Amino acid sequence: MNAAREQRVPLSTIAREWSRIGVTGFGGPPAHIAMLRALCVDQRQWLPATEFEDGIAATSLLPGPSSTQLAIFCAWKLRGGPGAVLGGICFILPGLGIILGLSVLFLAREPPRWVAGIAAGAGAGVPAVALRAALGLVPASWGRVRGTRSRERRWFAYLLAGAVVGAIAGEDLVLVLLACGLIETVTVPRRPPGPHERVAGAFPVSIAVPALGSLGALVWVAFKVGALSYGGGFVIVPLMQHDAVSTYHWMSNAQFLNAVALGQITPGPVVQTVAVVGYAAKGVRGALLASLVAFVPSFLFVIGGAPHFDRLRRSTHAQAFLTGAGACAIGGIVGVVVPLTAGLSHLWTFGVALVAAAWLLGLRRSVVIGLLGCGLLGAIAALAHAPVG
Description:
Elements: H1 3-7, H2 11-24, H3 29-43, H4 49-59, H5 66-106, H6 113-124, H7 126-143, H8 149-168, H9 173-187, H10 214-227, H11 236-247, H12 253-265, H13 273-305, H14 309-314, H15 316-342, H16 347-362, H17 367-383
Helix pairs in contact: 2-5, 3-5, 4-5, 5-12, 5-13, 6-12, 6-17, 7-15, 7-16, 8-9, 8-15, 9-15, 10-11, 10-13, 12-13, 16-17
């Protein structure tokens, strides 16, 4: 038993500190991980560094938002199930409240012209954000297969499959993700797992057909985001884009770009984007339902699986699955750049997109600042009477 459990960190402390991270955690998973490490390892010394790093490794093997799962895991280490639930909720709710308020403003039928300009400008920066997210995931994924010619060839095949599906049929990406993961699992030669390495039910192998109707469709889309997405927060984009825009017509392509931008510039988990899609589909109740469905799996995975994380991290099955699914997810993020770019409807937005690419891909600067800058350019364009509708 570690010192933190002996001291029994008060639930009020967990609520306060995890809420603080939820309010100030701009910048996505890298920022969240850094803030959790500073709090739990460096400042309070609640967790040893090795235990924290093991938590990162284990949650990266799970589907869904990894930084949210890491926040839940750290709170679980301090106060068990009650701490995990409280910490996760406090981490999620601040960003959810902010993004709901912004959804009401940005998805209004007739928003003020300057608001429409900000939305169009920020949305124009999203394709560059997607490319940057994909490129950032490549080194770790490629490192899993580098040096083995057959695995390298399969990695490129998974990447290509994800890119094609992400570009033309994003709603099917979850099936391809699972297929690539399972192919890699059965293809990679390995020794039989020992009794302490066997992981039962670590990954879903079948998909239930959702109930008919728009509410059932929204639940299914949110479930894919929360329980069947591998490879980082941005893989939710190809999983949602086709469903939200083409299949169910909850929002236009331009509005979906706005949703992704809002998920990037608000604090807390990037997966909050699903709340914007839920709001477009069914108003506030749709946003709350989509968020609930998307985040509940993370609580279940961590609270139910945390005692077995060490075995999961050492499991050759889990590592192989993530190698295939992760490469496919990277391809899916690259592929979705095609429909995202197609959503740019005015000449000036293409100019903003090029500026965003230079800032994010050329200079490698902050995503949040980049999107805010794009929004400012959009507001200026709107005030100059450029088309924004």
